[in-house]
Amino acid sequence: ADIPKEQWAQVTEKDGVITYKKIPVPTPGHDEVLVNIKYSGVCHTDLHALDNDWPLPRKTPVIGGHEGAGVVVQKGELVTNVDIGDKVGVKWLMSTCFHCTFCQQALESLCPKAQLSGYTKDGTFQQYCVANAAHLARFPPQTDLSAVAPIMCAGLTVYKGLKESDTRPGQYVAIVGAGGGLGTIGIQYAHAMGLNVIAIDGGKEKGEACKKLGASMYIDFKESKDLVADVKKATHDGLGPQGVVLLAPQEQPFQQATGYVRSHGTVVCIGMPAGAKVSMPVFDTVVRMIKVKGSYVGNREDTAEALDFFLRGKVHAPYKVIGLSQLQSVFDEMRANRVIGRYVMDMSK
Amino acid sequence: ADIPKEQWAQVTEKDGVITYKKIPVPTPGHDEVLVNIKYSGVCHTDLHALDNDWPLPRKTPVIGGHEGAGVVVQKGELVTNVDIGDKVGVKWLMSTCFHCTFCQQALESLCPKAQLSGYTKDGTFQQYCVANAAHLARFPPQTDLSAVAPIMCAGLTVYKGLKESDTRPGQYVAIVGAGGGLGTIGIQYAHAMGLNVIAIDGGKEKGEACKKLGASMYIDFKESKDLVADVKKATHDGLGPQGVVLLAPQEQPFQQATGYVRSHGTVVCIGMPAGAKVSMPVFDTVVRMIKVKGSYVGNREDTAEALDFFLRGKVHAPYKVIGLSQLQSVFDEMRANRVIGRYVMDMSK
Amino acid sequence: ADIPKEQWAQVTEKDGVITYKKIPVPTPGHDEVLVNIKYSGVCHTDLHALDNDWPLPRKTPVIGGHEGAGVVVQKGELVTNVDIGDKVGVKWLMSTCFHCTFCQQALESLCPKAQLSGYTKDGTFQQYCVANAAHLARFPPQTDLSAVAPIMCAGLTVYKGLKESDTRPGQYVAIVGAGGGLGTIGIQYAHAMGLNVIAIDGGKEKGEACKKLGASMYIDFKESKDLVADVKKATHDGLGPQGVVLLAPQEQPFQQATGYVRSHGTVVCIGMPAGAKVSMPVFDTVVRMIKVKGSYVGNREDTAEALDFFLRGKVHAPYKVIGLSQLQSVFDEMRANRVIGRYVMDMSK
Amino acid sequence: ADIPKEQWAQVTEKDGVITYKKIPVPTPGHDEVLVNIKYSGVCHTDLHALDNDWPLPRKTPVIGGHEGAGVVVQKGELVTNVDIGDKVGVKWLMSTCFHCTFCQQALESLCPKAQLSGYTKDGTFQQYCVANAAHLARFPPQTDLSAVAPIMCAGLTVYKGLKESDTRPGQYVAIVGAGGGLGTIGIQYAHAMGLNVIAIDGGKEKGEACKKLGASMYIDFKESKDLVADVKKATHDGLGPQGVVLLAPQEQPFQQATGYVRSHGTVVCIGMPAGAKVSMPVFDTVVRMIKVKGSYVGNREDTAEALDFFLRGKVHAPYKVIGLSQLQSVFDEMRANRVIGRYVMDMSK
Ligand SMILES: [Zn+2]
Ligand SMILES: [Zn+2]
Ligand SMILES: [Zn+2]
Ligand SMILES: [Zn+2]
Ligand SMILES: [Zn+2]
Ligand SMILES: [Zn+2]
Ligand SMILES: [Zn+2]
Ligand SMILES: [Zn+2]
């Protein structure tokens, strides 16, 4: 392949500001590859990275992005698991140590030495991205790179969250924020996993979308007078869903979730609003034996599984394609809370 | 056996007040037995029942008590699992429906029709107590009834909490409130289960007691300048304990527990202060994949297991014997937070 | 309801012989009900019961049958979980002790005191059957009693076997004997549970049926030259299915299953040919960490779950209706190995 | 450190024959280290490697050994997880690919590209051994290298087998072959894990040894007239042990194990006699819901855990030290079935 010396990128040189500019193409190390990013999704996390508002140190300057799909064009001399020409995905977890107790248990996302794409390492908002070979997602040749991009973060995260909900096929899972970017993918995963989905969000339009994607029931929190009661009523025995996946754990949805989740059930937190806290009543938590859990991206095996559902046609994230040069407009829409579905950037534009 | 018509009991006719008086001996129904209570422990829950300060309806008048040990003296015609003369235990869960989805899964403590000893049914603070046969703990003939009484609630509860902590032999469990009634038993269970116990409480005396009972380490929260750091340091790799059992989930210990528990670890709430709430930071919960769980007494199998550890001599709850007539003094000491270990009442005095 | 004094039944008075005759209608005990059986499936186990060829004592005379669907017409004075007029199912597990260690863990099928319908107790090949109330399956009013009958044994057994296969949605399960009575239901359960089904059986016709019911792949053991290789090839990475459900564990299919199951995978035995043994090579079992498990009917919770899939329309067992009087012809066809799908008897004919 | 050019080794140039000779010291690759082996245990597997009688290709010539303990004296430029001077252990699993589906799930022992010490790679029967850095066991500085050597295979294998037995503290585990090399370590692990150990072996002497090491009961198969009945009787309720660990799965012990294991219990196969098969009756396996599993060494996390028990003084493998030059005599004793405990070789002699 013909690797250029320069490339276009969106660079954060100062918190909150991105600059679209030409920069040098980087060179991969021994165990790394250079990926020609064809498409990159834009994730809410990218906005946190841009604003640097999380209690986790971020590098500066930084190139954001962690939902990349592209082609390997160069590789370090120790790389054996991918070849030049392979289609691959770049994820939030860019590399881990593989030696710590968490890595030894395949809990890589907890590795204290994890490097994060678009956060502690330059990410996928550039045409050529260096990535650790071991953590690449590997796609078959026929994979549609624009469609698969959102699976790398949104898909993986929500799939893992569903696994962590400890539900089995035939049981109920409530998805809070079901009409949003993660939610619309989550409904499809849950449906393909044999779960009965209770979709929770606001507005009629979202309700229709949720049902089309496979939700058995939709509960509109704008219309409901008693959300806890309504969610419980949506289960055939009135005892509430066995699992809840909270895509937006603001204080109120969390409180409600601990109210309507079935006794012995599980509430999974995925979203991470900066500075948010959740609180729950001890008495109910104890006598109803409720579990509350955090779920954070997924490991390499989870990635392969999430990808497999996509490849078998069970999951398609609705997305709009724009050019890399237009990233600012996506952030603007995000800040205005106007994004429906997912934006995927074509890196050539 | 010679069953009298009248018996002594401690009766709560008005919230907060107990009266020591003679009352009629009750008669068991078809599937019930009459137990001649020989000893009954006094539990913190009895104080909540007395004060009626939980969000759970209590009957009035009520005879408290749910750590009873005695002998079957009469049985309903349908009872087949115990015989007259058998030594048995009466627990908080006095009966359940055996038909609901929770009972069908052996999660009886979640049964919506559960009857609770000393709360929705008259309990063990009387010489002759009616109890459902199916939920009795069954003791071998040689069992010391005074020593086994505290196993019926304190022992069972803390044993179940340890099981719910998802820890395996060789791992670390922190017990918060390790020097108290449940804690001192909990250390012994944890030790017998092959766990490394980090005991947390206040004061030197408690520290020495904890270590004698099997704790590997003791951390004095009164002395520690950074409890989170100190608990982490108590583990050989500095990553914190895999499990935490919170016997007194006040706001501060809970916050600390979510701070020092190992990533992917579990915090179990057992204690239920009236009206308490616990809150946790979403960001940490998610990126460290922490679990928070409630644990509530245990089922019949848990009871048999907790009892088996006791019978094999692995666990001995330190207790003082007093007479039933002296119950008021125990409540007085509890209110003054002066109880060390457990009080067990001799029903004949 | 108007309960007659006499009824029609198929009675086994001598091993191997059934007699269609009038007998008295029995009376339920305290905790029992009388069920007016409307439909009863015929299961391969009924043939073993008839021939008395299992190493498990059977009563004589006996009325066979354990896939009954009917209406409660009378109940003992202690029965609270069903009412007269309720639609209910009678299963192989007719009653258990509810007190032993297995019952305490919701493993009722292992209860040493279990009573078995059509084996140690008179079963559903009669118009009025006495059954223990606690173990009845409970149907909603609109349930089609002929269609639900086979769920009571075939459906429950294969659903439980799939649960025991330790597979998760998205993984592969091979069903051996997929074209038979249990297999055709099993494919549908597996599909509804989000599993990729590799159906294994003999003949083109069965192959087409399996695919229509939801199998992703069909392997014809009559055509395959290397069954182990072919099953492995049917998985996208060539490593074989994570789970195998053996509906007919003859020696050869078992040997093959331990050959093609993925390393760390599970082989579940369900079928029980009289006197059969299975053997496996130790070396492979160890270095590939294979699990082999037996699965035996299911508990009350499993029954409710299996039923729920049926009620949501995910599973429909293909069946033919004949009259109770024609039972002998079903056994004749079974002995000739000519049964396709399930026979369900209309008790009124 | 001063690395010599030549070293002493025991080399297998022809199946069944070892030669003690001087050979060149090898050089580690990028991700490898050179370990100055101080002590190496001798394992029964080494005899299989010598005789080349397993259905698994072995390299020729080969230097055997996979229970090595030594000091890192040289390292490849990519090695970051150990330093020169560190005390480390070399195990059977010498390296794995870290990319396959099994490695991604921390099931490294199932990696199709696994390299095996003393089998597909030269092992620890030499003074300087090359080993993959990622799979080294890491010892604290104060570790006694002769005592820790047997933990690298015997300890790890039996600890993992106990984990795979699905038993919980307080339950029963039967160890078959309890008086042998793995068994004597296994009793100690099981005891430290809170299990009640039923030791099974032949002869009084072994019985006394087993009890000293922590077994609750000893059953002498030479004396027992009905081993199945005797093992069941050794449990307080007569239902048999929840788990069985078979260190020598000959046909007969395996048959017996499936007879006395508690219903719903687990039989773990560890030993791998060349060519052995195990068979079980289908009927019992199904109606008692028995599990049979293979367990094969352990992953890096299992190694760290097994080591931690050793470091905390819970486990000490009885061993005799001899010189590397005397290896032939150990094999002679093994062939004569005369080895008690473990031989550990001092590499300097
Ligand atoms: Zn993201
Ligand atoms: Zn790591
Ligand atoms: Zn219930
Ligand atoms: Zn209590
Ligand atoms: Zn059947
Ligand atoms: Zn039972
Ligand atoms: Zn591998
Ligand atoms: Zn070995």
Labels describing this entry:
homotetramer; 349 residues; Quinone Oxidoreductase, Chain A, domain 1; 6-stranded parallel β-sheet; 11 helices; 27% helix; globular; binds zinc ion
Helix content of chain A: 25-40%
Assign the CATH architecture of the largest domain in chain A.
Alpha-Beta Complex
| CATH class category label of the largest domain in chain A | Alpha Beta
CATH superfamily label of the largest domain in chain A: Medium-chain alcohol dehydrogenases, catalytic domain
Unreliable parts of chain A: none
Beta-strand fraction estimate of chain A: 25-35%
Bound molecules: zinc ion
Question: What sequence of helices (H) and strands (E) makes up the elements of chain A?
Answer: EEEHEEEEHEEEHHEHEHEHEHEEHEHEHE
Strands of chain A, total number:
19
Largest interface: A-B, 42 and 42 residues
Number of domains of chain A: 2
Shape of chain A: globular
* Cα gyration radius of chain A (Å): 20 Å
Largest sheet of chain A: 7 strands, mixed
Q: Quaternary arrangement of the chains shown?
A: homotetramer
Helix vs. strand class of chain A: alpha/beta
Number of helices of chain A: 11
Polypeptide structure, described:
The structure is a homotetramer of 349-residue chains. By secondary structure, chain A is α/β, with parallel strands linked by helices. In chain A, helix 11 links the parallel strand 18 (319-323) and strand 19 (342-346). Helices cover 27% and strands 28% of the residues of chain A. Chain A starts with 5 loop residues before the first strand and ends with a strand. In chain A, helix 4 packs across helix 10 (300-311). Chain A is built from eleven helices and 19 strands. In chain A, the strands form four sheets. In chain A, strands 3, 5, 6, 9, 10, 18 and 19 form a seven-stranded mixed β-sheet that branches. Chain A has a six-stranded parallel β-sheet with strand order 13-12-11-14-15-17, with helices on both faces. Chain A has a three-stranded antiparallel β-sheet with strand order 2-1-4, with no helix packed on it. Chain A has helices at residues 44-51, 101-104, 145-148, 154-164, 181-192, 204-213, 227-233, 251-260, 282-287, 300-311, 327-335, and strands spanning 6-14, 17-24, 32-42, 62-63, 68-75, 87-90, 93-95, 115-116, 128-132, 137-139, 172-176, 196-201, 217-220, 243-246, 266-269, 277-281, 291-294, 319-323, 342-346. Chain A has two domains: 6-153 and 298-346, Quinone Oxidoreductase, Chain A, domain 1 (Alpha-Beta Complex); 156-294, NAD(P)-binding Rossmann-like Domain (Rossmann fold, 3-Layer(aba) Sandwich), CATH 3.40.50. Chains A and B meet through strand 16, helix 9 and strand 17 of A and strand 16, helix 9 and strand 17 of B. Strand 17 of chain C pairs antiparallel with strand 17 (291-294) of chain D. Bound molecules: zinc ion (8 copies).
